[in-house]
Design goal:
single chain; 182 residues; alpha/beta; Rossmann fold; two-stranded antiparallel ribbon; 5 helices; globular
Length: 182
């Protein structure tokens, strides 16, 4: 039987983004990384229920020359160290005009993660804090949980759940799974 996954955006979902003028940005350095409190236990419980945990993150600042790829990889490694239940980081290093199929809102990163782990997307979730995350989840056929951080940018209008924190998103997923397993 296929597995299930929780796809997680990185900045704004697992770690505090840098917010400037109402817009979300990744930390510039590993030393600036601040992971949200209270994520390990709910992620561990989902993993114990058979979920694959896959981070899917756009990092266009690499293509733009603003951030070295080693910084992105260092931040991912630091998150993996703090949250060792995460199975994989899938990263799109492209910019808007690069024509890739991985950059959210396209579903390429989710499809790649699903193929690697034999994931049933219809039984999986995408948790994100921006419209592109949610649109990628919908395009891939997952359930979606929008973590509304109040950015000054167009928010998604179509999602399964809207919450104020990643902890709340993970609680909703746990609750739905418990209800399904009834």
């Amino acid at each position: 039987m296929s597995s299930r996954a929780v796809f997680l955006d990185r900045d704004g979902v697992l770690n505090h983004p840098v917010v400037r003028e109402g817009k979300s940005y990744p930390p510039a350095r590993v030393e600036d990384l601040q992971i949200y409190d209270g994520l390990y236990d709910p992620l561990r419980r989902l993993k114990d229920r058979g979920f694959v945990l896959i981070v899917v993150t756009n990092q266009p600042d690499v293509a733009r020359g603003a951030t070295p790829r080693s910084t992105v990889e260092g931040i991912n490694a630091a998150i993996a160290h703090e949250l060792p239940v995460i199975d994989r980081f899938v990263v799109c290093y492209h910019d808007n005009g690069d024509g890739c199929d991985c950059r959210k809102p396209l579903p390429g990163m989710l499809l790649a993660g699903a193929a690697e782990f034999d994931v049933d997307l219809s039984r999986s979730y995408m948790v994100g804090d921006r419209r592109g995350d949610i649109e990628a989840g919908i395009a891939a056929g997952t359930r979606t949980v929008f973590v509304d951080r109040g950015y000054r940018e167009p928010a998604p209008t179509n999602y399964h759940h809207k919450v104020d924190s990643t902890q709340e998103a993970l609680q909703i997923i746990e609750s739905e799974i418990a209800h399904e397993e009834g």
